[in-house]
Amino acid sequence: MTKKKSLIQQIGIPRLIIGIFLLMLFIAAPMAGVSLTDSVQNVLSRFGMFSVLVLSLVPMVQSGCGLNFGIPIGVVAGILGGVTSIEFGFKGFTGIFIAMIFAALIAVVFGFFYGILLNRIKGDEMLIATYVGYSFTAFMCIAYLILPYKNPVSVLSYSGKGLSQQVPVADYWMKSKVLENGTRITEGLLNNFLSINILGVRIPVGMFLIFALMAFIVWAFFKTKTGTAMTAVGSNPEYARASGININRVRLVSVIFSTVLAAVGIIIYQQSYGFIQLYQAPLAFTFQTVAALLIGGASINKASIPNVIIGTFLFQGVITLTPTVINGALNIDISEILRMIITNGMIIYALTRRSKDE
Fold this sequence. Notes:
Blueprint: H1 2-11, H2 13-31, H3 36-55, H4 58-62, H5 71-87, H6 92-120, H7 125-146, E1 166-168, H8 170-173, E2 174-178, E3 184-188, H9 189-192, E4 196-198, E5 201-203, H10 205-221, H11 225-235, H12 237-242, H13 247-273, E6 275-277, H14 286-295, H15 305-330, H16 335-352
Antiparallel strand pairs: 1-6, 2-3, 4-5
């Protein structure tokens, strides 16, 4: 019994319950007339789309800056990187790579000023970051209208200037493909790269590889002297200060690192989704990413790559499958209502959980 209790404690009762619920949804899908292979494929695809965004929260959590409710800042950097790459006409993997480079450079600048601000309000980072995310997104709504982009794909059609609400990337970052059954699909290049078919489920290996690369970079970073100092600052700032660590500098590096990862993560999302979403869209990623990380077992001052993997899979699996299965069973379209209830319910749990519960 002791070993069983120990295993349950390691997994965590909340994650165990959510995991069992997700398994039940997979089992119920065929009974509700929903394709099981499509369900698995959708969950795997959404995991690839969101995983790097959730991963971007880890550096700030580890440095004691708390959960990054200011993730829209990194998302905006990724948006600017994406539309800049399209503005210059870069296509294919080159276009995605150039977009990531532009996004990372912009994110370094944004992250620097964001980090300076958070260093001035120690102890209230999560509260202030939420307002920073909202206010910066609102400011960029004005900036999008006056930025000098000219590509017809990106600008508003009626005026010829100002960026559109959605910028399609189908001609730049996506590829059309005919499946064995004759169906033509258009999917992101990373989704299609090295993708394999197992029992009718297409596995987006390319997105998993890019997540593995980013996760390795984060893991390797925390093995360096700066990464170790970052963990020390998050765990015990007084001890870190006594050890001669420049706390403000370490926190600043963590904020810049998180912002860069978020900028790269949103480009991975965009190439899979098919559009670069501007204006208010960055706000949609704040609570989803934070909730996913916390559901994975992280706390406000400790997070790991396994927390990212588990939390992203559980969160995206539940909000993807629940509306689909219930719609199929009841033959009524309440998907958006269910998605809002489930998403916000899981966010309430995630934001109110206590570390001692685990």
